[in-house]
Every structure is written in C-alpha cells, then in structure tokens.
C-alpha cells in the first residue's frame, strides 16, 4: 500500500479522507474538524487520534505497530517544525507529539501533555440586551472557579452556581473554570444563574455544548438548586424573543406571570428539573 492510498476515518464527522501524516486508521478529529473544535479549544492542522500509554510510551489505541512516542512532561528542545505528527487524546488529556533528531542523526518521537480547554455558551437576557454566558474549562490537576464580566456580585453568583450544581446531584467538572457574561454586561442580575450553571455543566460530561443552542435560560438559582423568580420576567422574554430565541426556560414560580406571545416558554422548579426539560426537548446527547 502506498502513502497516497492510506485513508483515515474521522470519529467526529464520520467521513473517510486521505491520510495527511502517513498513517491510516481512525482519528478523533480529522484535519478539517481539528481546525474548528471550539468545544475543546484545540485548533490545529494535524489530526487527533485516540491514544494509549503503556510503560511511558504513547501509541495509537488498538494499533501497536504505529510509531511509539516517549512520554515527557513538556515539549523537548529541537522538535522538527516541518514534520507533522498526530495529536493524541488519552482519556481527557491531549498529547502533542514531535520528532527530535539527535547528534548521531537518529530520530526520536516524543509526546507531551498540553492543556485542553472546553467551552460552552448559554443564553440569557436583561430587559434591554440578549447576553451570552460562556463557560470555559481548562482540564488541569488543580481546580478553580471564577465569574467574569459582572461589574458586581461575582462572588455571590459564583457561590450560588457551585452550590446549585452540587445540590442538584450533578458532578462538578474538574479543572479551572471561568464564566464570562457578555457582551458589556452593565446590569448584573441573578437571572443569569441558570444559564451560567448549564454552561458550566456543558463543559463537562453532563451536556453537549450544542444542547444550549437557541434557548434563553432565565432564572435565579438558590443554594439548594431550586429556581427562583426574577423581576420583570416578561421584559426579559421580550428581549430574548427579539434576539431570535424561540424557546425559553423560566422558574416555575414565574410561569403564572408569563404573558409573551411568539416564544415557547417552559418552566423548571430546580436546576435538575431544567435539565429534565432539556431532555424532553431532545437536546441532551
């Protein structure tokens, strides 16, 4: 078999394409998909393959005849920039690979971990503006949680979101998590809570990032994970409808106040109930 006839099948888009790196088989992301993988913040011209590490050597999963890479903590000196080698996913860890030529002219393959960032976008509204709540999670051994883009009340929002997710029985995603509310949020509101919590969960395994597309999430969350009504809910729904959202989820205690035509409104009495509503809508993978 010649290099020109080697093909790879992409697990993401399902297509088979000619190999770009001299290896056939299955890849997690082909070169086209890897340029646009916003869900893990990984954009590259190289394919990403499923990998396995054994005895400090990384190779493609189920293909022990591929080149083996010595696993090191960070990128070594002298990696050849003009030689394309695959990236590998081992569990939740992304490994970059490269070749180094020693003084005797012998080539050696190395693999080192690089930070993986997963992001998700949820949507909410004020009385005047539609807002996007973006959660970004960098998969690391350390953990942190920050809320950005709010001119005030960031600490209170952070505490409510974390407590609500935990008390809803959901698994808090590991790593460094940052939530940003924007653009230009000048009127902080607890009505962003539900959107922020769902965005955080979508950076983990609970939701696919696409789950939140086209839905405005408008509710405060209590520390116990239950939803709370917000002021002027109809004004917020009007803003969401004007921004093109056809569906919204609000607190159950707000449902009797809803009086907005042209948008499908669902109620939830807790974060867990909101996730169930999303399941009913067929949006959870």
Describe the protein's architecture and organization.
The chain is α/β, with parallel strands linked by helices and 285 residues long. The chain has two domains: 3-114, no CATH class; 117-280, 2-Layer Sandwich (Ribosomal Protein S5, domain 2), CATH 3.30.230.10. Helix content is 17%, strand content 33%. The protein has five helices and 18 strands. It has helices at residues 31-34, 154-167, 193-202, 233-242, 271-280, and strands at residues 7-10, 16-18, 25-27, 48-54, 57-60, 69-71, 87-90, 93-101, 107-114, 116-125, 130-139, 144-148, 176-182, 215-218, 220-221, 227-228, 247-251, 264-268. The longest helix is centred in the middle third of the chain and has 14 residues, at 154-167. The chain starts with 6 loop residues before the first strand and ends in a 5-residue tail after the last helix. Residues 37-43 have low confidence and may be disordered.
The run of helices and strands is EEEHEEEEEEEEEHEHEEEHEEH
Low-pLDDT runs of 5+ residues are 37-43
Q: In CATH terms, what is the architecture of the largest domain? A: 2-Layer Sandwich
> Structural class of the helices, strands and pairings?
alpha/beta
- Ends distance: 38 Å
What is the radius of gyration?
Answer: 23 Å
**Overall pLDDT, averaged?**
83
* Number of H/I helices: 5
CATH topology of the largest domain: Ribosomal Protein S5, domain 2
Strand order of the largest sheet: 4-5-6-9-8-7
| Coarse shape | elongated
Write down the CATH class of the largest domain: Alpha Beta
Please indicate the count of domains.
2
Number of strands: 18
Question: Portion of residues in helices?
Answer: 10-25%
Please summarize the sheet with the most strands.
Answer: 6 strands, mixed, barrel
Strand content: 25-35%
């Amino acid at each position: 078999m010649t290099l020109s006839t080697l093909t790879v099948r992409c697990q993401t888009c399902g297509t088979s394409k000619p190999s770009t790196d001299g290896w056939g088989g299955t890849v997690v992301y082909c070169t086209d998909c890897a340029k646009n993988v916003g869900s893990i913040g990984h954009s590259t011209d190289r394919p990403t393959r499923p990998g396995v590490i054994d005895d400090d050597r990384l190779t493609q999963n189920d293909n022990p005849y591929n080149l083996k890479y010595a696993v090191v903590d960070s990128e070594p000196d002298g990696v050849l920039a003009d030689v394309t080698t695959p990236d590998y996913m081992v569990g939740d860890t992304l490994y970059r690979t490269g070749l180094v030529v020693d003084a005797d002219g012998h080539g050696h393959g190395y693999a080192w971990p690089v930070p993986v960032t997963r992001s998700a976008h949820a949507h909410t509204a004020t009385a005047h503006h539609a807002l996007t709540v973006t959660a970004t999670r960098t998969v690391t051994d350390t953990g942190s949680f920050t809320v950005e883009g709010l001119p005030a009340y960031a600490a209170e929002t952070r505490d409510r979101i974390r407590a609500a997710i935990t008390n809803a029985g959901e698994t808090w995603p590991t790593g460094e998590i940052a939530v940003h509310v924007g653009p230009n949020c000048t009127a902080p509101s607890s009505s962003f809570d539900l959107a922020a919590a769902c965005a955080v969960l979508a950076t983990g395994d609970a939701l696919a990032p696409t789950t939140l597309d086209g839905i405005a999430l408008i509710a405060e969350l209590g520390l116990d994970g239950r939803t709370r009504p917000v002021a002027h809910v109809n004004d917020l729904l009007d803003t969401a409808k004007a921004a093109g959202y056809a569906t919204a989820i609000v607190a159950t205690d707000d449902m009797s106040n809803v009086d907005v035509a042209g948008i499908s409104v669902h109620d939830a009495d807790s974060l867990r109930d909101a996730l169930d509503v999303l399941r009913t809508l067929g949006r959870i993978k």
